[in-house]
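Cast an eye over my tokenised protein here and flag anything odd:

===
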Amino acid sequence: MGRGPRRTLGERGEKLAYRFLIAHGLRPIARNFRRRGGEIDLIMLDRQCLTFIEVRLRQSGRFATPGETVDYRKQRKIVRTAALFLASERRFAQLRMRFDVIAIEGDGVDGIHWIRDAFRPDDSML
């Protein structure tokens, strides 16, 4: 089965985000962490803060910006998947945590928008 255009676009966005975050001093922990019901694109350390990162790349922000597409349902899935990650990787359980979004529009040439602390677990439980 071949890769669809959305998957290829998503992979390109994740590579751009990964390089961007490495250049900003974050250290990689995991990429595409998947569990039943959810996936986290990137998990990285920002000093002593465990950061769960959702990457959104959209060709156009005409109807919604990439950051706006991370709605409460998506947030809830990310939060649940983060809890599963922590249950399986106890060495990170005592670290402070943050949920970020990397928003990329078009081909990324015009910039990558890093939304630190984009949402909190309590926000997604409404």
